[in-house]
Structures are given as C-alpha cells and as structure tokens.
Specification:
The chain has 547 residues and is mainly alpha-helical. The chain has 22 helices and no strands.
C-alpha cells in the first residue's frame, strides 16, 4: 500500500464523514424545530415516545443528536426519565436507517446528487429549497467518499500487514473493542457501520465478524450523550446512563446469543440479504437494534431505577442568591434546544414580573413595609434573569441552530427587554408605596378601586400574552387587541377623572401625582404585554417603546 492509497483512503473517509455531517446538519436545520416540537409533545406515553424517537432519528439521520436533545430536555425539566427512555429506545432503531441507505451503494450516481445539491443551494432563492439542496449535496458527498474509499481499499487487499490485522478481528472480543473505539472517536455509529459495510463489500472483512463490530458501535455511540451530560444536572446524567445501560445490556445479551449460535445466525442473515455482505451488515445492524428494543422495553422502569443507584442524591443549590430554572449554570447550552430552554425561562421571568405587578398594586393601595421589601427583592431577581437570559441568547445566536430557531431568537431579546420593563413598573409602585408610608399620603377610596380594576385588566392581558408566547399560538389574539384598546381608553378616562378630583380638592397634589403616574405605568405595562404577544408573529420587527 503506497502513499497515494493512504491519501485516497483518508480523503474518502473525510468526504464520507463530512457528507454525513452536512446531511445531518441540513436535515436538522430544515426539520429540527418542527420535529423537536413533536418530540416534546408526543412523549407522555413511552411507546409513543419510542415511535417518535424512531421517526425523528430516521429523519435527522443522527441518534447522537436525538439522545443529546433528550438529555437537554431532561436537564431542563421538560421531559422526565421515563418519557426519555422511550425516545432513547426509538433513537436506537432510527439510527439504522443510514446503514440501510449506504447498503444501496449509490456511488455511481453520487456526482449527480452533488450537482443537484449545488444547483439547489447556489441558484435558488427560497431558503427551503437551499436547505434541501444542502441535504442532497451532503448525500452525494457521502457516497462520493464511499466510492473513493472503495477505490483505495482495492489496493489495501495487496497489503499483507493490513490483511493480517483484519484477520485478528476474527476474535469477537477484539472486534467488539475495535468497534467501540472507532465509534467513540468518530462520534457516530452510522459512520462506523458505513465503513464496515464498505469493507465487507470489498471482502476485507468476513461477514461473520461484522455483527461483533456493530455491537462495539452500540456502546461507542453512547459517548456523545455521556459527554453532553457532564455539564448537566443529575437528571441529565441519568438520561445519558439510560442510553448507556440499554446498549451495554443489549450488547451483552446479543453477544451471548451470537457466541452460542453464531453459524445459524450468520447463515440466516446472509440468506435473507440475498448473499450480499453489504446488505447483510445493514440488516444485522437493524435487527440487533430491534431485538434489543423488544427485549428491554418491558424492563425500562428497572433501568431508570438503576440510574438512581448509579447517580444518587439530588443537585445541591449553587452558592448564589438567585438561580434560573431552565438555563442555569448546571444546564447545558445545546443548539437544538436552546430556544426551547430560553422560552421556558422567559415565561418564568414573565410570571415573576406579573406577580410583582399584582403585589405592587396591593402594597400601593394598602402600604406594607414587608411587601415593599418583597417587591424590591423580586425586582432584583428579574434584573438577574434579564442579564442571564440575554447572555444565554447571545451565546446561542453564535451557534448553528435550526433555521426556525434562528428566525425567532431576535424576538426573544425583545421579549426579555419588555418583561424587564414590566418589572420596573412594579418597582415604581413599591417606591410610591414607600412615599405614602413616609409622607402620610392617602389615596381616595375611589382612586384605589379604579387602580385595582385597571390592574386586573393589565394582569389579564399579561396572562394572555404569556400564554400566546409560550404556546406559539394566536388563540388569545383578539382578547389581547380588545384589552389593549380598553386599557388605553381606561387610562384616558382615569386621567380625566383624576383632574376633576384635583380641581374639586378631593385629593392632594402628591396623591394625584402618584395616581397619574401609576395609571400611565399600567398602560405601558399593557403595551409591553402586547409586544410579547406579537413576538410570535413578527419576532424581528417589534417596536421597542421607550418608557
């Protein structure tokens, strides 16, 4: 084997891995956000979660991406371990689709795929066409890499050193170890299986040893999720361990079965594959995964419980005054779930701000030093969330994310800013209540009733807006529009009423100033709430109103 052959082999492997990467990335960008929503929604039942996991992984062509996403969901509290276990089972079956495609050996028409992909991605203006073009291009590069490797491997047959090494893989234990190491390095079981398919088709590997290499791939494929979980909380680590235990137990059982009845099983696989070694490897990969899932599905609760033995206890709070729920320091920044985590954290921030408005009006009408202190503490928490969420969004926007997420992330910055300003108005109420306490100012009974009524309207529009933003629907749009108009009208009416009371001497100038400022502040809170509601419709085009 000369230097040219080595370069061909390395170049082919590089094209193969690159093609698989851009194909997977392209699919995730094109369908990742929608599929992620399905993944998040249809996982209440473990069986349905498994089916969704199969479909999701088959579409995005990456079990690693699926399991890392599941670990992130668990880390954020959006999915529990029992729901995650079903998706992980499905991901293990879905990942075999890549091997089935590779077994078709489309190398002869790979240049056509590359040309179509280039034309679609370079000469079409529609983003959807461009994204599909990238997927087609990746598909073509993948098979071009396989073709290049195939050419190089033809020369490998003349190397007695390499043939001697491959012969040592007749030892099942060594084959399992080699499969594990290669997959751990490549971070893709599909890539390793593709290489095995190619080598088997070139008669460089005896098919009898290929199932043992695949078993090693099963365990090596767990490394991505295990590494991703290191920066997560204990639940995230347990989710990664579910994936690991499933593959280790399944591999052990299949390994024993293969050792006990190796000849009949190998013969049956070759027969059902038309004596095609490439097709037999792909079928072996699929059957191994399907058998593992059928075998271990009834015992997943036990596996989940075992993870609590491996990772005992609960997370200890950080030595910090405040902590976020979904994107705290113990939570991972994963491109595929970054916007989901951010939206949940923003909704939490919005609820804190809404509660502070409610408490602010309560203490304004009935001043209490304890309530004032609580409002100011919550305002500090809102400011903390504002800085942390903004920092998270800045870091997320610099990463490769699904296209649908890229389109909304700008709107998330605006929503965080709107909520922070809502919190400022609650702080203004607390400061006004403090003045009332210190200076003995008294609001009239009518003014108190008017402020409370207007606050209820504002809190209602806030609830509708946060619901629309959280669920990404337009269900309450008409209520939001009607309430905004009603609040604008109420603000004008109350300001006129306030002027009349002042002219008749029914309230003091200081009380009148507090009343007028509060009514104006409530109207602005409603404006910010409307911005939040419309963020789902025009995430990049929201007007930022100055207070």
């Amino acid at each position: 084997m000369n230097l040219k052959t080595i370069f061909l082999l390395m170049g082919g492997l590089g094209m193969f891995l690159f093609g698989m990467q851009i194909m997977s990335d392209g699919l995730q960008k094109a369908a990742g956000a929608k599929m992620r929503g399905i993944l998040e929604f249809f996982t209440q039942n473990r069986f349905i979660g498994m089916v969704v996991g199969i479909i999701f992984t088959a579409i995005i062509q990456s079990s690693n991406a699926t399991t890392v996403m599941v670990v992130s969901f668990v880390n954020s509290g959006l999915m529990n371990l029992y729901q995650a276990s079903g998706v992980i089972l499905g991901a293990n079956i879905g990942t075999t689709v890549t091997g089935q495609l590779i077994a078709f050996n489309l190398s002869d028409i790979a240049p056509l795929f590359i040309m179509i992909g280039v034309v679609m991605s370079m000469f079409f203006k529609r983003d959807s066409v461009k994204r599909i073009g990238v997927v087609v291009l990746g598909f073509g590069i993948l098979f071009m890499g396989l073709s290049t490797m195939g050419t190089a491997l033809t020369a490998v047959k003349e190397s007695q050193v390499i043939l001697g090494f491959l012969a040592t893989l007749a030892n099942p234990f060594l084959a399992l170890f080699v499969g594990f190491v290669i997959t751990s390095v490549l971070q893709s079981s599909s890539a390793t299986v593709g290489i095995i398919i190619l080598m088997a088709s070139q008669d460089l590997l005896e098919f009898a040893i290929c199932p043992f290499l695949i078993l090693g791939c099963n365990i090596g494929a767990c490394m991505s999720a295990m590494l991703a979980s290191l920066s997560g909380n204990k639940e995230a680590k347990r989710a990664a361990w579910i994936h690991f235990l499933f593959n280790v137990i399944g591999t052990a059982v299949i390994f024993i079965l293969l050792m006990a009845a190796r000849g009949p099983i190998i013969g049956a696989l070759m027969a059902m594959s038309g004596n095609s070694a490439a097709r037999a490897v792909a079928n072996a990969h699929t059957l191994i995964k399907v058998i593992e899932v059928i075998m271990l599905f009834p015992f997943m609760e036990w596996i989940v419980k075992a993870t609590y033995k491996i990772i005992p206890g609960t997370d200890t709070p950080e030595e910090e005054e405040f902590e976020l729920l979904y994107i705290g320091r113990r939570n991972m920044l994963t491109p595929s779930t970054a916007t989901v985590d951010a939206i949940h954290e923003i909704v939490h921030m919005g609820k804190v701000a809404s509660e502070n408005i409610r408490l602010g009006m309560k203490t304004l009408c009935h001043p209490d030093a304890g309530d004032i202190a609580e409002i100011l503490q919550k305002e500090r928490y809102i400011n903390f969330m504002n800085h942390r969420i903004t920092d998270f969004l800045v870091r997320a926007s610099s990463m490769e994310m699904p296209v649908a997420d890229v389109e909304i992330i700008g709107g998330l910055f605006h929503v965080v800013n709107d909520i922070e300003r809502i919190g400022d108005h609650a702080e203004n109420m607390a400061e006004a209540a403090q003045r009332i306490l210190e200076d003995g100012i008294k609001l009239s009974d009518k003014a108190v009733v008017q402020l409370q009524d207007m606050t209820e309207m504002v809190l209602r529009i806030l609830d509708y807006s946060l619901d629309m933003f959280s669920n990404k629907n337009q269900e309450h749009m008409q209520e939001v529009l009607d309430l905004e108009d009603a609040i604008d009208a109420r603000e004008k009416k109350l300001q006129r009423s306030h002027v009349k009371r002042l002219t008749k001497g029914k309230c003091s100038p200081d009380a009148g100033m507090i009343f007028s400022d509060t009514v104006s502040g409530l109207e602005r809170v409603a404006d910010h709430a409307t911005n939040i509601a419309f963020a789902i419709l025009q995430p990049e085009g929201m007007d930022d109103e100055d207070d």
